[in-house]
Amino acid sequence: MGEPLIYNIVSLFVLLFGSTRQKINYDCILRNGYAYGILAAADHAKKYGIKRLTLIEFGVAAGAGLMNICWIAERVSKQTGVEFDVIGFDSGEGMPPPRDYRDHPEHYLTGDYPVTDKAGLLAALPANAKIYYGPIECTLKQAEAEIASTIGFISIDVDYFYSTEQSLEILTWKAERYLPAVPMYFDDVAYIDHNRFCGELLAIEDFNQMHQTRKIAPMNFLPKYRVFKNALWLGQVFYAHVLDHEFRTPAYNQARRPEIAVLTNPYLSRQV
Fold first, then answer.
1. In angstroms, rounded to a whole number, what is the distance separating the alpha carbons of residues 91 and 96?
2. Mean pLDDT value of segment 175-190
């Protein structure tokens, strides 16, 4: 309700008659942060000639988020032509005990967010989706050997600092396994007591300090690019920048664009 009325009216027509891209642009898709990230990843992939991406969610729990990713991915694929694999990671046992204040024990308790119907969830997933159940340090090693397509989007929804720290190890693989800039969604950064000294925000800061060529940063000016500029999820979108990626090298870009960029100056052509 804090947005201009005309945008809300237009969004109703987009909801009924718009394309997938239009619906995402007007926040008409459930879990807007996921929708934005998946579409942005597909557009980025097309720019570099990548035809298939992996979409990842850490913290599957009951599975609504992962199934939402599958639903969005199917529609974005029809819109863009990019195909997707969907991967989920979860302990399968609910949340472990919080270790200290960095895990925000004021919010989360041992056993929170368990798998409620594992068999039903696995049966409901499409053929291009898979869940790795077990300790993240073990399942990540297995996934590293099995994931075949380029990693294009990552959602972190594991609440704890320590769990996020472990999940971010997925960004330490060989550079060619990612888009040069991977959209990320961090679920647990929006409470008033979330801060850079605890939880997911601390894990991001520590990761950036420990890795010279892999950095996580908020999406610059994202609200300025959106129709609805006041949505909470806009502050939950980050990008993982793979600074050692081939696509970021002068040699790669010189081969793609051999001519230098030249700007014109319309003032020089004016008659005095």
1. 9
2. 97
